[in-house]
Specification:
Blueprint lengths: L2 H15 L3 E3 L1 H9 L5 E4 L5 H13 L4 E2 L4 H8 L5 E4 L2 H18 L1
Helix pairs in contact: 1-4, 1-5, 2-3
């Protein structure tokens, strides 16, 4: 795993410890609809209906969607078994988006 990807997972874990994330499909959907979610993580190995639902919601509400991690990687980062995670705090979200852009550039 590249350094940028590891930093991204570390930042997600830090946001979790700060209480700035929402996890679970239902709560994340609620957070998106309430315009509280700033960035959403979805496991790349999520089910087809979950993928379709969150791609559509994030596009409609113009929320960045990060899909470069597996369920296991996301779960390990936050210490809970989850497929979908929303970061709600603007500062964390800004840094996460920067790291995600760096990670994409290094993989391309």
């Amino acid at each position: 795993m590249t350094t940028s990807k590891q930093q991204l997972l570390n930042m997600l874990g830090l946001a979790r410890r700060a209480g700035q994330i929402t996890t679970g499909e239902g709560l994340v959907l609620k957070s998106i609809r309430a315009h509280q979610a700033r960035v959403v993580f979805m496991a790349c190995d999520a089910g087809h209906s979950t993928v379709k639902q969150f791609i559509n919601k994030c596009q409609y509400y113009q929320i960045p969607l990060i899909t470069m991690f597996t369920k296991a990687e996301l779960s390990r980062a936050i210490g809970q078994k989850r497929t979908v995670i929303a970061v709600e705090q603007a500062g964390f979200a800004k840094r996460i988006i920067e790291l995600a852009n760096d990670a994409e550039e290094t993989t391309n």
